[in-house]
């Protein structure tokens, strides 16, 4: 766990000394809170940042989305994604991967596939992380034929298959 109290204290000291915090400062502290699952505090900092006229970016939103996803709050994750899009902030590969992984872990493979389609429409190509999450989602649902199709797709794309890919599929067969 990060020492978030010290970080907030230093943020206050920065301002006392005339050093204005920027997007990088806030993103660092928000991400630390998110990683420690202190989502309410992270959202408070997010609000404070906006109040100060500092616009959030893809890094800010991805940190928040990942944090709420860790807590299984996929509706909040979707809300944050919608808010992000409404502000003209384009999600990137890490943002999409967090959503795909969360939906798959929740057994919502159809929704994960919709996110992958959104990625592709935005010219963001899924990577091994994306496909491993999707394959794992199918395995968790006992859909081994679908998991194998994802694996075969990865093989057809070249160097996408890795040890984790194979382990996911093996694990799925063992539990199947």
Task: Please describe what this structure looks like.
With 176 residues, this protein is mainly α. The protein folds into two domains: 1-90, Serine Threonine Protein Phosphatase 5, Tetratricopeptide repeat (Alpha Horseshoe); 91-176. Helix content is 74%, strand content 0%. It contains ten helices and no strands. It has helices at residues 4-16, 23-35, 39-51, 58-70, 74-86, 93-105, 109-121, 128-140, 144-156, 163-175. The radius of gyration is 19 Å and the shape is elongated. The two termini are 37 Å apart. 34% of the residues are buried. The mean pLDDT is 94.
Topology summary:
Layout: H1 4-16, H2 23-35, H3 39-51, H4 58-70, H5 74-86, H6 93-105, H7 109-121, H8 128-140, H9 144-156, H10 163-175
Helix pairs in contact: 1-2, 2-3, 2-4, 3-4, 4-5, 4-6, 6-7, 6-8, 7-8, 8-9, 8-10, 9-10
